[in-house]
Amino acid sequence: MAVQLNDYIKENQLIVNQAIIEIVERMNIPTTLKNSMLYSIKAGGKRIRPILMIASAEAFGGTRDDVLPVAVALEMIHTYSLIHDDLPAMDDDQLRRGQPTNHIQFDEATAILAGDALLTMAFQVITEAKQLSAEQKVTVINRLSIASGSSGMVAGQILDLEAEEKQIDIAQLEQIHQLKTGELLIFAVEMGAYLAGASQTERLAVKQYGHHIGLLFQIQDDILDVEGDQIKLGKQVGSDQDNEKSTYPKLLGIDGAIKVKEKNVAMAIKLLEEATIANSMLASLVNYISDRDA
Amino acid sequence: MAVQLNDYIKENQLIVNQAIIEIVERMNIPTTLKNSMLYSIKAGGKRIRPILMIASAEAFGGTRDDVLPVAVALEMIHTYSLIHDDLPAMDDDQLRRGQPTNHIQFDEATAILAGDALLTMAFQVITEAKQLSAEQKVTVINRLSIASGSSGMVAGQILDLEAEEKQIDIAQLEQIHQLKTGELLIFAVEMGAYLAGASQTERLAVKQYGHHIGLLFQIQDDILDVEGDQIKLGKQVGSDQDNEKSTYPKLLGIDGAIKVKEKNVAMAIKLLEEATIANSMLASLVNYISDRDA
């Protein structure tokens, strides 16, 4: 199963990467801007969101091709958010995935514009998806704009900035991560199911699955910042502690954080069993996300 | 006619302002982020783009209500672009419309996020427009993302930054303005016509009209930076010269710039006559944009 999952992830990463790069390459974009956009796209990344979307579509009888443009749009939005989050005025990060961040490699103005451009292009890509009906496009754009906007990811980012060096409790921490990371993960699996023709009940189940995936994703992130391998992560560990950031290990201890993570793993699996899709790649992905070392 | 036009502009500004503010107000957005978004929305602005869109729809038998959500989305995109353009890493402006720019009033991180949020919300607003069909929504989102993205407005902004303190010719100057300002003005009138059910020929005429409007808009902007009234403009004049920026007056002299502007006025009017819509508000708006003092 482990090898099979690795092949699955690698294959889909390859397809998603090719699709994104091809779309950006063929557009008429000023050179520096295009290079800056491609730089962050090519910087790697696990493509967790697109892979979750594809796996969700497949779990309900759909195919990768049914959702590929939306998966690409989703990854463009994720990439834009990383570029902007790394800016000096935000998290001020110099290194991501072992490489200089966009504004270090280019400059701040270019990084801001590359982010703006990727965000805008995400919506264009969906409108031009040949495999989707107009109704599907409108639904997907609506959900994506909500999940990534001022009541979703952008809200999470500002609350995260405001929470820095402040004492917050577990409920506030969960809210921030739910907005900052969770909403796009939920979008991935819910819209994957929707585009594959899943029923309302199935969509609801997979949405709840996405909620637990979001939490365990974040808990593992926090754990890796304490116990992770700097080389594998491609970024400095211990930065949360240096920033006096509220994290699961800080609030619950490492053992407490692992316990909460395992609870979410169990709940995610249980939801898949109830929806009779526990034999799908969505199940393997739970453990992959929970146990990843980067 | 002049009074009638002023009333027309005032009424539409009011309606557009109310619509934007109502949409942002009713959403669940973290306080600082919402305040920052509303700050820039409420900072004034002539609402030229929404008004052109409404006038174009009306010229072809449509109504303001047919296009209002799209006009709102367009103004959200325009507002986001101003917030990001003013950032220290970009044009580094402290004052806009006589008030502190967003990052001065709040902070850089908040300004970046408010821009991101407004850009994202623009697409959401279109998806939720009750008066539009799914096909219309998809067409409008497609055109808006192209006009404002990496082959449109964002391209114009990076080319503009790259042209600073560099000698460029009239053709390059026109290309920058076409991308930075022109594409959204064309979007306004073309999509206004489209949503009102105009024919392909009519859409083409109004697109060309939009092209000339874009040019004369920019020429007047440049002239005001030389000859304008600082109080009325709400910003420092002479900044283009200080920045050694290429402008129409610099490349052609004031008289030369005025001559080119008048040529574009004449061509815009001629296009309206040919499309038999020269008695629409689009005609009065040509002179308004050409002669404005702010």
Automatic annotation (TrEMBL), chains A, B:
Its cofactor is Mg(2+). InterPro entries: Isoprenoid_synthase_dom_sf (IPR008949), Polyprenyl_synt (IPR000092), Polyprenyl_synt_CS (IPR033749), Prenyl_diphosphate_synthase (IPR053378). SUPFAM superfamilies: Terpenoid synthases. Pfam families: polyprenyl_synt. Keywords: Isoprene biosynthesis, Magnesium, Metal-binding, Transferase. Belongs to the FPP/GGPP synthase family. NCBIfam families: FPPsyn (NF045485). This is Polyprenyl synthetase family protein. The lineage of its organism: Bacteria, Bacillati, Bacillota, Bacilli, Bacillales.
